């Protein structure tokens, strides 16, 4: 049973380009969370999605960032017109549902470097 | 909003000794969960231990145990018989057990800043 799969593991983008980060949740998990970890800091919540629905995007920057979790396929975190400050590790976590009382299963993260 | 504070940026311990990592949190809720996660250099976030706020008994997982003081809003992690493989960044995290209006805060984890643990042979 594969865990949460994130790709790519490392992503380098020039300023102004777009970054697309993918997350495939664990089998049977329909809830996905995205977190960002800036250097030397803890993880910060960005967005919580269920299939085809954004449940909570209170941690998402208002501009340039978007997320989706389509009926088929992985969840995508999209960053348009990247800037140096977007350089960070982006983690995805999944859970089976709202009633889960357990800590989530995290992926290994995508390290985004903006040059 | 809830906050989680880890006041020890770095800690070190000798192999086979015991070390305690501190965590305090602030919340107005009475029902919640607390977690300790380990992040080794591989960057993988690994769940170490969890505690339900309604349980008086402190959680234990092999060499890892917590000291949960609900009134003081304190949640420390004790690692006994430390091993070289315990070296990592450790994060304390909080999660509400119930949602806000509309259920939007239900799933969110709030993390502390982390503590880097070094284990000396």
Instruction: Assign the structural class of chain A, choosing from mainly alpha, mainly beta, alpha/beta, alpha+beta, or little secondary structure.
Output: mainly beta
**How many β-strands of chain A, per DSSP?**
11
Number of helices of chain A: 0
SSE string of chain B, helices as H and strands as E: EEEEEEEEEEEE
Q: What fraction strand of chain A?
A: over 45%
* Derived structural class of chain B: mainly beta
How far the N terminus sits from the C terminus of chain B, by CA atoms, comes to 41 Å
Low-confidence stretches of chain A: none
Order of helical and strand elements of chain A:
EEEEEEEEEEE
Tally the helices of chain B: what do you get?
Answer: 0
Q: What oligomeric arrangement do these chains adopt? A: heterodimer
Biggest interface and which pair forms it? A-B, 26 and 29 residues
> How much is the radius of gyration of chain A in Å?
13 Å
Shape of chain A: globular
Based on DSSP secondary structure assignment, what is the total number of beta strands of chain B? 12
Summed over residues and divided by their number, the pLDDT of chain A gives a mean of 91
Task: Sketch the major β-sheet of chain A.
Answer: 7 strands, mixed
What this model shows, in words?
Chain A is mostly beta strands and 115 residues long. Chain A is built from no helices and 11 strands. Chain A is globular, with a radius of gyration of 13 Å. The N and C termini of chain A lie far apart (36 Å). The mean pLDDT of chain A is 91. Chain B is mostly beta strands and 121 residues long. Chain B is 0% helix and 50% strand. Chain B is built from no helices and 12 strands. Chain B has strands spanning 3-5, 10-14, 19-21, 24-26, 32-39, 46-52, 60-61, 64-69, 74-79, 88-96, 109-111, 115-120. In chain B, the strands form 3 sheets. In chain B, strands 2, 5, 6, 10, 11 and 12 form a 6-stranded mixed beta sheet that branches. In chain B, strand 7 and strand 8 form a beta hairpin. The chains are: A mainly beta (115), B mainly beta (121). Chains A and B meet through strand 4, strand 5 and strand 9 of A and strand 5, strand 6, strand 10 and strand 11 of B.
């Amino acid at each position: 049973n594969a865990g949460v799969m994130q790709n790519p593991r490392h992503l380098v983008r020039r300023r102004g380009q777009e970054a697309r980060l993918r997350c495939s949740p664990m089998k049977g998990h329909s809830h996905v969370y995205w977190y960002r970890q800036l250097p030397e800091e803890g993880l910060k919540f960005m967005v919580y999605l269920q299939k085809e629905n954004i449940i909570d995007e209170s941690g998402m920057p208002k501009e340039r960032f978007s997320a989706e979790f389509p009926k088929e396929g992985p969840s995508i975190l999209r960053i348009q017109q990247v800037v140096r400050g977007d350089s960070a590790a982006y983690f995805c976590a999944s859970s089976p549902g709202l009633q889960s009382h357990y800590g989530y299963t995290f992926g290994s993260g995508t390290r985004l470097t903006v040059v | 909003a809830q906050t989680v504070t880890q006041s020890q940026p770095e800690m070190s311990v000798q192999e086979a000794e015991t070390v305690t990592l501190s965590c305090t949190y602030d919340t107005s809720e009475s029902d919640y969960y607390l977690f300790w996660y380990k992040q080794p250099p591989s960057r993988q976030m690994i769940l170490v231990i969890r505690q339900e706020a309604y349980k008086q008994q402190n959680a234990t997982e092999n060499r890892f145990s917590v000291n949960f003081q609900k009134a003081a809003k304190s949640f420390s992690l004790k690692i006994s018989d430390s091993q070289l493989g315990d070296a990592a960044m450790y994060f304390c995290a909080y999660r509400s057990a119930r949602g806000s209006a509309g259920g939007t805060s239900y799933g969110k984890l709030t993390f502390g800043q982390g503590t880097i643990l070094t284990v000396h042979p």
